[in-house]
TrEMBL record:
GO biological process: synapse organization
CDD domains attached to this UniProt entry: Ig (cd00096)
Protein name: Ig-like domain-containing protein
Species: Halocaridina rubra
Pfam families: Ig_3
An annotated GO cellular component: neuron projection membrane
Domain Ig-like: 25-127
Length: 186
């Protein structure tokens, strides 16, 4: 029995391999070796926007793995979540090729970058933005009636946009005058 063993497999090791038995006539068996890189993938987008007080589940699965990873760790802003956090509302549930991070009662402190890192796989991350309920209520109207918070916020946005536009126009106008005066000096 002959065996080919490749250590520290690289992409360049992929290809067609031949095992030839020295009989008359020679007998050959051909094998195709495909080299894949496992990667952790957090479902959803690169950014998540969630309100305070809600329950959040981040699902991570390991794709292209040839065997279940020995571990899958979650990190929050470079601090391991699986064992380092002592928050009562945080829980990690593991599966053979995946893991779920559950945060039961989101707070402002939960905002940041979450990374899913699996053994022998490229990590993935997501940025969590935590939004307060009062801001959400001011931005969205449920019954179509105007409330003072919404109209104050709209007025504030309009005033900010007007000031930005005025500044831009003034800068553009001054820049135009400076260019004209330089042309006249030449």
């Amino acid at each position: 029995l002959w065996e080919l063993s490749i250590r520290a497999v690289r992409h360049s090791d992929a290809g067609l391999y031949e095992c030839q038995i020295t009989t008359h006539p020679p007998t050959s068996l051909f094998y195709i070796l495909s080299v894949v890189e496992a990667q952790a993938v957090i479902q959803g987008g690169e950014e998540v926007h969630v309100h305070t007080g809600v329950k959040l589940k981040l699902h991570c699965r390991v794709e292209l793995a040839t065997e279940p990873p020995q571990y899958i760790f979650w990190y929050h802003n470079d601090t391991m979540v699986n064992y380092a956090y002592s928050r009562p509302f945080l829980k990690v549930v593991g599966r053979p090729y995946g893991s779920t991070l559950i945060i039961s009662n989101l707070t402002w402190e939960d905002a940041g970058i979450y990374t899913c890192e699996a053994h022998k796989a490229h990590p993935d991350n997501v940025t969590l933005h935590v939004i307060g309920e009062e801001k959400h209520a001011a931005l969205h109207k449920d019954d179509g009636a105007s409330d003072s918070a919404s109209s104050d916020l709209s007025f504030s946005y309009c005033l900010t946009l007007t000031l930005l536009l005025a500044t831009w126009l003034a800068y553009g106008y001054n820049e135009d005058l400076r260019v004209r005066s330089l042309d006249k000096q030449r």
